[in-house]
Every structure is written in C-alpha cells, then in structure tokens.
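Following up on my earlier message about S-adenosylmethionine. Here are the inputs again, as you asked, copied directly from the submission form:
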Amino acid sequence: MLNEKGFDLWAEDYDTSVAASNEDNSYPFAGYNRVLRRIAQTVLQKPGAAVLDIGFGTGTLTAHLYEKGCAVWGQDFSAKMIALAQAKMPNAHLYQGDFTKGLVPPLLQNRYHFITATYSLHHLTLAQKVSFLQSLLPLLEEGGQVLIGDVAFADASSQTACRAQAGEEWDPDEFYFVYDELLPYFPQLRFEAVSHCAGILTLSK
Ligand SMILES: C[S@@+](CC[C@H](N)C(=O)[O-])C[C@H]1O[C@@H](n2cnc3c(N)ncnc32)[C@H](O)[C@@H]1O
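Thanks, got it. Here's what our run produced:
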C-alpha cells in the first residue's frame, strides 16, 4: 500500500497510468472515466454545490466541478498531488492530512452538499470505512450525499471473479468496497456497478 511519499512519486504519471488502464478496460481503473462522469453529473444537478473531495489526487474530478462553479474543499496526504490540484483550482480549500486519522479540523467546520471520494478509501479496512463514513454523515447538508467511486463489487463472489481475472495484477493490500458488507451498517446505501471492477456507492444522510 502506498504512503504519501509513494503517491508523491506517482503524481506526475498518475493521469497517464490511469488513462491506460481505463482505455484497455483492465483492472484496476476499468470504468474510471465513467465513474467520474456519473459522479460529476450527480453533483452538477445542484448548481454551485459545496463539495468536499477526500483523496482528490491530481484533481481530475474536482477541477471539472470547480470549473462548473462548485465550491471545492479537499483533503489529501500527498504534497505533490495537492500542488498539482491547487494549480488547477487556485481558490479551492485544499488541506494536507491523513484520512486514516480523520479530517483536518478546518474541514469539520463546514457543511457540504456532496462529499466525494474516488479511488481513495480502499486504503481503509471495513471497520475503518464504517467509522469514517459515519463521521462524514453529520457534515452533509440536509439531502446531501456521500458519493464513492472506486474499485467496488456488489458482493464477495463478484470480487473473487475479478481477482481471478486480474491474476498477478491484483493488489492484495487494498480493501476494496463490497456493497453487501457495508449494507448492514448503512441500510440507505445504494450501489451501481460501472465496470467489471468499478462501482459507485451513494450514501444519503
Ligand atoms: C488513486 S488516487 C485517486 C485520486 C483521485 N481521487 C482520482 O479519482 O483520480 C488516491 C489519492 O488518495 C490519496 N490518499 C491515499 N491514502 C490517503 C490517506 N490515508 N490520507 C489522505 N490521502 C490519501 C493519495 O495521495 C492520492 O492522491
């Protein structure tokens, strides 16, 4: 599993390597463009939405939302990713911090129409996901949503099939989202499969 220095090193090549995996429809980024597009479509239904993006990376999703008039906040632990994203969004409120320790205090002061996290929260175990997601719900405006796009599966058997197909490429250190493992904790959770290895989880307040 990469730490912040690993993500610093990956930052310059990140967009290129994601695009290659997205284009040849291979694990882990098969469906990446569609995941981000679907999430952006949802957010942009609310003009001028306040959006918090967790693990925003180079800002591919948030820079698009920013250009369309959203107010953007974010947290990431990689200084290099933050620099690349901030250059695209000069007025976004981007903070450095490790989300395994929670959100940095300034982000807890606001309320958001959407909290997004794409391809970032699979670094958390199931127990960590549950407690982190629970901590996000009070930060949503009434009717707000947490939108998670990631390597994600409806159930364990879909994950097993993807793992078999990915073979040596499979990263055993990640804790991918499995919808029916989270459902007992969040009965309102919804899941939409986007590719053989990607999906969107929507958690409403
Ligand atoms: C695979 S990239 C995804 C970037 C972007 N959201 C996207 O969809 O392209 C994961 C991002 O999460 C950040 N990240 C990973 N673990 C983190 C942690 N524990 N705390 C804060 N940021 C983290 C990394 O620095 C990186 O920018």
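One observation from looking it over: The longest strand covers residues 140-153. Hope that helps, and feel free to reply on this thread.
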